[in-house]
Amino acid sequence: MGNSNSSNKISAQDRAILDMKNQRDKLHQYQKRITVLTDRETAIAKECLARNDRKRALLALRRKKYQESLLAKTDAQLAQLEQLTSQVEFALVQKDVLFGLQQGTQVLNTIHKEMGGIEGVEKLLGENEEARAYQEEVSQMLAGHLSNQDEDEVEDELETLRQEVQGPVSLPDAPIGLPPGAEQEPESDLAKQKARARARARERTAVPA
Q1: What angle (nearest 5°) sits at the alpha carbon of residue 123, between those of residues 119 and 125?
Q2: pTM summary value
Q3: Does residue 71 carry a pLDDT above 50?
Q4: CA 161/CA 65 separation, integer angstroms
Q5: Residues 6+ apart with CB under 8 A from 173
Q6: pLDDT of 17-41, one tens digit each?
Q7: Res 5 pLDDT > 80
């Protein structure tokens, strides 16, 4: 009985480790493929900014951030599962590991659907009805999937790319002195009091004629 239980535990752990290795291999494959897409999305954002199309440039960068966040999420999850399976009492964490593997599979499937090929990325630049419908679909899909930090990072990247494409914003020089027609502000009450005090002091010390 004891040997049988031990054999079952090892078998379950081995299966979990094999599943994680398969997920890791698939993740690495997606990382290589998605890098091609994200590089193109960055280039598309620059092209849009060059023609002052900020909305579409932002959409390209938001999609890029979403793809990167999916990969990062799966990578971190697999690292956590590897730590769990390395524990001696695998039976105590087996349920968590299996649940984590299921979640990992779901995320990988989401990444697979999101890949869409380079054709989908090129639609972000399209002007025809089909391309616009695709852009609207991507925009709706991204709604609520990016954190506030992700959105801030996207805005920062957009501004960095804008400066690369259009150069820094030149602000007008600050005006010197008062603008034409402006009047000098009246003295404050405190300044008036000090002036009156100095005048009285001069009167007291003045020598009579």
Answers
A1: 130
A2: 0.59
A3: yes
A4: 15
A5: none
A6: 777 777 778 777 777 787 888 899 9
A7: no
Q: In this predicted structure, what is the pLDDT of residue 179?
A: 58
Q: Enter the tokens of residue 33.
A: 């493929």
Q: Are 31 and 69 in contact (CB under 8 A)?
A: no
Q: Is the pLDDT confidence value at 157 over 50?
A: yes
The pLDDT of 95-119, averaged and rounded, is 72
> What one-letter code names the amino acid at 34?
I
Rg, C-alpha atoms of the chain:
33
Q: Which residue's structure tokens are 């079952």?
A: 8
What is the C-alpha to C-alpha distance for residues 47 and 50, in angstroms, rounded to an integer?
5
Rounded-to-integer distance, Cα 207 and Cα 194, Å: 22
* Higher-scoring residue by pLDDT: 80, 41: 41
Which residue shows structure tokens 């007008």?
172
Q: How far apart are the first and last CA of the chain?
A: 127
Residue-range domain boundaries for the chain: 12-115
Q: Would you list the DSSP string of the chain? A: -HHHHHHHHHHHHHHHHHHHHHHHHHHHHHHHHHHHHHHHHHHHHHHHHHTT-HHHHHHHHHHHHHHHHHHHHHHHHHHHHHHHHTSS-HHHHHHHHHHHHHHHHHHHHHHHHHH-HHHHHHTTT--SHHHHHHHHHHHHHHTTTS-HHHHHHHHHHHHHHHHHHH-PPPPPPPPPSPPTTPPPPPPPHHHHHHHHHHHHHHHHHPPP-
